[in-house]
Amino acid sequence: MKIATLIAGLVATAALTALGQDGVIQDVKHGAKKTGEAIKDGVETAAEKTKETAKTVGRKTKETAQTVGEKTKETGQTVVRKTKETVDDTGEKAAGSTRKTHHKSRKTASKTNTQTTEEQGADRESNTPVLSPTP
Question: Can you tell me the distance from the alpha carbon of 93 to that of 109, in angstroms, rounded to the nearest whole number?
C-alpha cells in the first residue's frame, strides 16, 4: 500500500502541476492578447496623428508659398514702378539739360562769331597798307 499511496500522491501532484501550468499559460495568453491590442491601438493612433500632421504641414506649406508669391509679385511691381519713376525723372532732367546745353551753345556760338568778326576787322586794318605822308 505504501507504493500505491506514493503513486497516488505523484499522480495528484502531477495533476495539480498540470492544472497550475494551464492557468499560467492562460494568463500569459491573456496578457499577450492585451499587449497586442494595446500595440495595435498605439500604432493606429500614431498613424492618425501622422496623417493629421502631414495635412497640417501641407496646408502651412501651401499658405507660405502663396504668401511668398504675393510678396514676390508686390516686390516686382514696386521695382517696375520705381524703375519707371527713375526713367521718367531722368528723361525730364535730360530734356531740361538738353535745352540748357542748346541755349549755352547758342550763346557760345554768338560770342565766337562776334569775336571772329572783331578779329577779322582788326586783321583787315593791319593788312591795309598804311599811307604814309609824302613830303
Answer: 24
